[in-house]
């Protein structure tokens, strides 16, 4: 069950990142984040009311609040790092986020077997290579490295925190709702500050109504990914769940290849192969 739900997480996050990447070509990234998360919050609010999940409120929701605070900060830092570039360095470095939940799992006493350790090492290396690391060329600004490391820490914190936010299915709905409300609040504040500084909140043609289905998909896929990861982490070793869930850059790269006919570089293809090999080792362990 852990492997199944963790792989579902990587699929959902990979497709959400692909959709978000397409949207940010025409719409400011912060607007994409705020609108997509607002749609997800509205849907989750209906689910919470329908299932009576309010009865699950308790101290664990503070983990959801913390995850909601860490997520937008990590995303903003990541987008800024991508803007500074080069993307071929920033994207693979962001995969260091997996170190946080794996470290938490080890701290709590999890001890993966030798096959699983090998699988973790191979899968992480594969994910990093699938991002297409830039091995030579333009120099990397120190600020880009710092922002990328902050984003990796933030994404990793979301992994670790959301797994602790609930112990039941209805409680998970409430935790995800609280996380999203916090996401929208933080993202909305960042968007407000950005606009006050002169940035545009919308493309020149106004609100992209035609993109609303894609915005909804991005927000809901992100929510679903958090949910499947939480289930994976609760039903098996966090060290395994976190690594399998971190395969989403491979999904994004393959989606770009399939839908946009983008050619994979040799290093990305090799990375995808290694990620798959690491997945097999983890499942076998």
Q: Largest sheet at a glance? A: none
Structural class: mainly alpha
Mean pLDDT across the residues is 83
- What fraction, in percent, of the residue positions are helical? over 70%
Tally of helical runs: 12
Number of strands: 0
| Radius of gyration over C-alpha positions, nearest whole angstrom | 18 Å
Compute the separation of the termini in Å: 14 Å
Task: Offer a few descriptive terms.
single chain, 285 residues, mainly alpha, 12 helices, 0% strand
Structure report:
The protein is mostly helical and 285 residues long. It contains 12 helices and no strands.
List the helices and strands and how they pair.
Layout: H1 2-23, H2 29-51, H3 61-84, H4 87-93, H5 99-107, H6 114-130, H7 142-162, H8 169-196, H9 212-234, H10 238-245, H11 248-260, H12 266-284
Helix pairs in contact: 1-9, 1-10, 1-11, 2-8, 2-9, 3-7, 3-8, 5-7, 5-10, 6-10, 6-12, 8-9, 9-10
Write a brief caption for the model.
It is built from twelve helices and no strands.
